[in-house]
Every structure is written in C-alpha cells, then in structure tokens.
C-alpha cells in the first residue's frame, strides 16, 4: 500500500505519502489564496522526498471538507485526475475528522475551521476517531450552548474565543493525519466515503443581480 493524501479545504495546502504503516513523507504550506499554484509542486516534492514516482501510488486520499468552494475543489479535482490516470481508488475523508485524529484528545471535544462570513465549519467528537454529529456551518454564538465546556480544535475555534475558550492544536489539517486515519480505517475493513465535496453552502461568488447576457447577433 502507498497512499497519496492531499487536502485543500483549509488555508493549508498539505500532501503526504503513507505506506500502510507510517507516513513516508509529508509537506504543508499555509496560503489560502494559492491552493491551485502550490498543490502540484507539493505533490512533486513529497514524491521526491520519498524517492518514488507517482506510478507507485496505490490509492488516493483526499479531504472532502467542509471548506470554501474554490479551495476545496482544487484538491478534489486533482485527486480525481490522479485516480483516473493511475487507475487507483480515490477515498474521501472528512477534513474535520483529520483534525480530530491529529488532536488525539481524550473525551468529547469540538473541531471548528474557519468558514468566513463570521461562521465556522464544525462537528462534535466523542474521541479522536468518533464523530458524533454531521459537519455543519454556523455562527459561533448560535452553537454556544452545544459546545459549552468542550475543548476545541482548529483555526475556527481560535477566531472566536468567547465561544471556544479552551482551544488545542493543530490549527490546520495535515495530509499526514488524513493518510494515517484512512490507512487505519482501510486496515479495519471499513469502506471509505466517495470523494464528494462537503460545501454546506453556496459559493461566495455570485452573479450580479443586474447582469445582462450578451449574445452575438
């Protein structure tokens, strides 16, 4: 097994290789505006560090969000393209699950990433491997009662200390954690999700209300 994992659902552009036992190589950069520019060079760098070619990969793992439309689709489209070109399966993993796995906290906690518009993408966890709720997008003040008293993980929690006073790392997801979680689940015989995006809301970009379509005569 050699899993190539990647995620662009948060400001981090993150890639890792996992051989079914350990992370072989990984690299992450935080730049919310350059997902498309940074992803393929990061893949190339990770493959080079591991001393293997792309054709050695036996499966793709991709973070499916939730996340902003533009960033998230970069990773998903790249993963689908690799899967088709190599003829290997593409496995989707919730980005929040990757953060929870990396946090490795005991007992219940919350994962929250920045959803912009003064909102967070979030979910509650029983432990680092067990999600209790579906991913959602809300204003922190609107979920204060649901998350009260729980430790929180992620950049979204750091932005709203009134709602999340007890924040733990990591801030952003790592492909190394996604790959390790996927490898663990596959070894346990679990069927991973299809690589379908968790957008949870419409894209930020909207067609102007007074937009007029111009067609050639």
From TrEMBL:
Keywords: Acyltransferase, Transferase
GO molecular function: tRNA N(6)-L-threonylcarbamoyladenine synthase activity
Pfam family membership, one: TsaD
Domain Gcp-like, residue spans: 32-144
CDD domains membership: ASKHA_NBD_TsaB
Enzymatic class: transferase
Keyword hit for Transferase: yes
Designated name of the protein: tRNA (Adenosine(37)-N6)-threonylcarbamoyltransferase complex dimerization subunit type 1 TsaB
Protein's organism: Streptomyces fragilis
């Amino acid at each position: 097994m050699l899993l190539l994992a990647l995620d662009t659902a948060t400001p981090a552009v993150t890639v890792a290789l996992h051989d079914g036992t350990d992370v072989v190589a990984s690299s992450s950069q935080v730049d919310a505006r350059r997902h498309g520019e940074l992803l393929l060079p990061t893949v190339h760098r990770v493959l080079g560090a591991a001393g293997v070619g792309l054709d050695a990969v036996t499966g793709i793992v991709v973070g499916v969000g939730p996340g902003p439309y533009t960033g998230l689709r970069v990773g998903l489209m790249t993963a689908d393209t690799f899967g088709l070109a190599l003829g290997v399966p593409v496995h989707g993993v919730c980005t929040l699950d990757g953060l929870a796995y990396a946090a490795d906290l005991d007992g219940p906690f919350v994962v929250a990433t920045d959803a912009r518009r003064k909102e967070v993408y979030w979910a509650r966890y029983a432990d680092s491997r067990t999600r209790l709720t579906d991913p959602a997008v809300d204003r922190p003040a609107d979920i204060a009662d649901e998350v009260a008293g729980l430790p929180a993980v992620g950049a979204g929690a750091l932005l709203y200390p009134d709602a999340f006073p007890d924040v733990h790392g990591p801030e952003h997801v790592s492909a190394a954690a996604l790959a390790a979680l996927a490898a663990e689940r596959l070894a346990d015989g679990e069927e991973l999700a299809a690589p379908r995006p968790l957008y949870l809301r419409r894209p930020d970009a909207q067609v102007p209300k007074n937009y007029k379509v111009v067609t050639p005569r």
